[in-house]
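Weekly sync, protein design subgroup
Attendees: M.S., D.O., the rotation student, P.L. (late)

Item 1: inverse folding check
M.S. brought a backbone from last month's batch and wanted to see whether the design step gives back something sensible before we order anything. D.O. pointed out we never logged the input encoding, so this time it goes straight into the notes. Structure tokens as presented (115 positions):
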């Protein structure tokens, strides 16, 4: 099996209460998209992996919000040195580490189902 070639690794927010990380990558000629979101409401959190097929993203696997390792409400973490102000003033790279366990799980399971 080949290594993953990361095309996009983006952390973003809509400046409300959600922070999401999206990774798009290619492995063995297949294009995958991993999307993990932390929201202040657990029911609105998500972690899913999709594959590009016929120019559309098709979900392959997801982790139920109640089973995610990414904690809800990351936007409101008290230990974030860049927490004050709007998203433009926040230390966004600080949040990357909080998504990693779910990202690793999604990549492992999603690839096992497809490759």
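Designed sequence read out in the meeting:
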């Amino acid at each position: 099996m080949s290594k993953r070639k990361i095309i996009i690794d983006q952390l973003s927010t809509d400046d409300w209460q959600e922070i999401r990380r999206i990774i798009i990558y290619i492995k063995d000629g297949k294009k995958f998209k991993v999307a993990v979101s932390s929201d202040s409401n657990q029911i609105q959190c998500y972690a899913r992996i999709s594959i590009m097929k016929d120019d559309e993203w098709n979900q392959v696997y997801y982790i139920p919000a109640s089973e995610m390792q990414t904690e809800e409400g990351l936007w409101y973490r008290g230990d974030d040195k860049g927490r004050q102000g709007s998203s433009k003033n926040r230390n966004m790279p600080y949040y990357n580490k909080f998504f990693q366990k779910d990202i690793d799980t999604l990549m492992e399971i999603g690839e096992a189902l497809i490759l």
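Discussion: DSSP finds one helix and five strands in the chain. The two ends are 9 Å apart (CA to CA).
Action: P.L. to compare against the previous round before Friday.
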